[in-house]
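Are you able to produce any protein sequence you like plus the matching backbone structure tokens because I've never seen that pairing?
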Amino acid sequence: MIQTVHLTKQYGKLEALHDLNLHIEKGKVFGFIGPNGAGKSTTMLILATLLAPTDGKAYVAGYDVVKEPKQVRQALGYMPDFFGVYDNLKTAEYLDFYAAAYNIPPAKRKSIIVDLLELVNLSDKADAYVDSLSRGMKQRLGLARCLVHSPDVLILDEPASGLDPRARIEMREILKQLRGMGKTILISSHILPELAELCDEIGVIEKGRLIACGAVEEVSAGTRGISVMQVKVLQSHDAARTVLQASPYVRRLDDKGSHFRFQFTGTEVDKAVLLQQLIGAGIPVVHFGESKENLEDVFLAITEGVGS
């Protein structure tokens, strides 16, 4: 449903996107991971027919984004990282306006709007003015706008940006429903845990280059010889930190206060040696083992040294 072939975008001498090759199958949710400025939004703008590539090809639902932009826009729902709203319109009027823009007959719009407001949990706000909505509600309304013409493909650029924890959870639940409907979704974020339970596959982009792509397990830190470890001690916290910092296999030591979390690059034997060192120093260890890996660990491990 979404494909890019050697996609490149340059702004003068600045290369915002370099030789990007993506293939996202129908019904899949693909997470685009990377820091701000990595090339996520540039890719999405090209796919949404709003930016011309310098080189390469891009296709959405089988249509060429450069040669067949009208067909792409009909198959696509695009939600940018920042979008304006018409404050003088009511919520239902806002959706009616966009439904009309897609040439949806008036007789069909009412039922579509009712269904969309129910999907994004805004049924009780149908007669509320848009400028009275919270940021989270406006984000959900923006998502509903993307769906007025029932597109098969959704491109969502930082859909949970700036939302509080409750609003992010609400957005995530809606996205799960859309995944259940069989929508093909490309979603970007620099807040990595948001994507962990949503995505079938992830792509890690840094400085315009796709440096890893595939199922989460395939691009995980573990497959690169790195374990994410957790150690908890009963006391002698400072002494434990000293032992861990001295190990040549410990990277990115994070002192959580109640426990330590870090990347470990050694073997199973090296883990046993580290545990013996902690115990040998008289430190009462109550937990020593691998921690459940999250996308933040994946990103930090994969991008180690990239661009340096």
